[in-house]
Amino acid sequence: MRTTRRQFLTMASMGAAGLGLASCSRGDTGDGGGGDASGDGTSLTFTWWGNPVRNENTTNAIAAYLDENPDVSIEAQPGEWASYWDRLATQTAGNTAPDVIQMDMAYISEYGGRGALLDLDEYGLDTSDFLEGTADSGVIDGTNYGVNAGINTPLVMVNTALLDQYGISLPDDTTWTWDDWLAMATSITDASAGAVIGTSAIISNDAMFSAWLRQQGKELFLEGAQLGFEVDDVTAWLEFQQKFADAGAMPSASQITEESSVAFDQSMFLTGKTGMAMYWSNQLEAAETASGAELTILRFPSLDGDATTRKAWYKASMLWSASARTENPEAAVAFINWLINSTASGEANLAERGIPANQEVQAHISDLLSDPQQRVAAFISEIEPELGDTPIAPPPGGGQFGALLLRYATEMLFGNSTAAEAASGFYDELTAAVSGS
Amino acid sequence: MSALGELSKLKTGGHQTPEQRAARRKEASRDNRAGYAFLAPWLVGLFAFTIGPMLASLYLSFTDYNLIQSPNFTGFDNLVRMLGDERLHTSLRVTFTYVLVGVPLQLIVALGIALLLNKGMRGLPFYRSVFYLPSMLGGSVAIALLWRQIFGTDGLINQMLRAFGVDATIGYVSHPDYALWALILLHVWTFGSPMVIFLAGLRQIPTMYYEAAALDGANKRNLFLRVTLPLLSPIIFFNLVLQIIGAFQSFTQAYIVSGGSGGPSDSTLFYTLYLYERGFTNFQMGYASAMAWLLLVIIAAFTAINFFAAKYWVFYDD
């Protein structure tokens, strides 16, 4: 038998149709069915991003809640930060968003402003024991879309053992400047002959760029979806960061690209390839667990060499939100109330999500905290005199800040654009993103 | 063969009486009903899961749908924005490079391996399976992750190079000059399914043509160019059409290798990846739907061009 024209066309059309079907059927569901309703009792789905320590804590917390509430069932959906937001967006679009959602400041107005999140106050959220100024982190235009799951602050972690090996001493973090960071990172790279790179990159780090801006009296975002800085600020930042690259004090553009999508415990700092890195305070325990080394925490630097002018801030490390389309809003908020206010939840989670905002829980667990968590708790209270105003939640579209800056910054680092070109490209695209186009 | 049978039936139909014809019609309509009954599961799937969503996305492409709130009709706004969207143009450039380089390379490799395997060697089923294996795995997340490990800055390739004293510091999946080529290599590596189809096609070529040509003194090169290629051209065409359609829709590899960003500096920003980013990261599902329809138009155009060009080079032996 030879191939005839008719056989060929049949084969081709079947194959083409098959391919078309396979690919078109994905992603076009605008109006899918509702969530899964279970028969008896209340069932909740619960999602969070995290790390092995948090996953274990959270699993224990869920077990404790189920012991107290045997008629509730909870389906856990743990995830990784890198893929968490894609999945949440997909689930939200498909009308299968989890009932209880671990939310981030960067995305809360994105989801809340579009009506995807429940008004927690309406269903009896209880923040009566919260530390002053921590109860309304997730309130946007008068609606409470998320409640503080722990207090957090940005800091610098240093792998002291690694530094000792090369005879590098720690800076005085009450007086060090951004230039000192560069000098220290350079000396680590030089002393180890490149075996250890000075510092993990902060070039596209929104917290460090924000800190640097705030010390100049500016902000990332202003009320009304405005940017609080100018193109020139970005140019200056990128030019400063280029010095790290020129000195070999931070990873190459390729390594930065690769690092942007690896799991928490695979980062260059936690695998001993860099000497220091920016992290959030609540990550210290997980970081020490992952790296197996004791890490030292430092204040991020200031421009003037005086820590009291460094404009530090407390941030809700993450927030508890509920889906606006949950079938059990009362049960979802009851679970959130338990997470933030019960000592049992405090005992399970300790300070891994940040220091609890509920003062009673905070007092109850202070003796139970692990060594790294105690150090963080002490650090957080120590830096209180150094606090500036609390930054506002980024507007919708602002959640892309890090990804956008990374793209333009690596383009500069690969030598495909100048700092000024990268800065203006970034600025234009971010402006467009927050204005909703 | 079957076509001839149909023809002869049609001819005899002309000599029937009106009664016989009515009876045949009745029988035929019963046959049709049975046919549709058997087709029903597929038709339900077609309308519910393909046509329906496609029409929905056609409507959404004229709206500002953001996944959460109900859509507002915005006319041709999305199309106008697509004209000025530089990243969209980048993604088209990346995707065209991938298709126009990756598909021909893959087919050449597939044909080459098929020719080797067609020499009647021992253990053919084994080799066939071995060469087909990458195709089974190639589209998977695991292989994309493996690719990232092998071609990363501290990946297998660079470690081997360093063992030979080369100062290898380039991450092939994370450098804008190389990342797309690493993905094209991955595509070429999954040559298995066109290879199997080529192999089947090669076995259908009657040996008498080769014998006759050999008697006339044709050398190997001429046998290939003047016997194998013309008789295989329908199969080449078939593979070409399917692989082009498939390559335009590539998503998984780029998504995993670049961590969903299309990076470094948009060098692996496949069209589908950008579409996904617009739809699910930026919540612009209306715009993403418009992009999906542009992709459909592009693929349709390529397929039409393919079929038109086929008149000039595809040889049907019937």
From TrEMBL, chain A:
Q: Which residues form the signal peptide?
A: 1-22
Q: What Gene3D superfamilies would the database entry show?
A: Periplasmic binding protein-like II
Q: Name one Pfam family in it.
A: SBP_bac_8
Tell me the keywords, alphabetical order: Signal
Q: Does the keyword Signal apply?
A: yes
List the PANTHER family: ABC TRANSPORTER SUBSTRATE-BINDING PROTEIN YESO-RELATED (PTHR43649:SF11), ARABINOSE-BINDING PROTEIN-RELATED (PTHR43649)
Q: What is this protein called?
A: Extracellular solute-binding protein
Q: Organism, per UniProt?
A: Occultella glacieicola
UniProtKB/TrEMBL annotation, chain B:
Per UniProt, subcellular location reads as: Cell membrane
List, alphabetically, the InterPro entries matched.
ABC_transporter_permease, MetI-like, MetI-like_sf
Q: Which Gene3D superfamilies match?
A: MetI-like (1.10.3720.10)
For the region Disordered, give the residue spans: 1-28
Keyword set, alphabetical order: Cell membrane, Membrane, Transmembrane, Transmembrane helix, Transport
The ABC transmembrane type-1 domain covers 92-306
Q: Name one Pfam family in it.
A: BPD_transp_1
- Answer whether the UniProt record assigns the keyword Electron transport to this protein: no
Homology family? Belongs to the binding-protein-dependent transport system permease family.
Q: What is the name attached to this protein's record?
A: Sugar ABC transporter permease
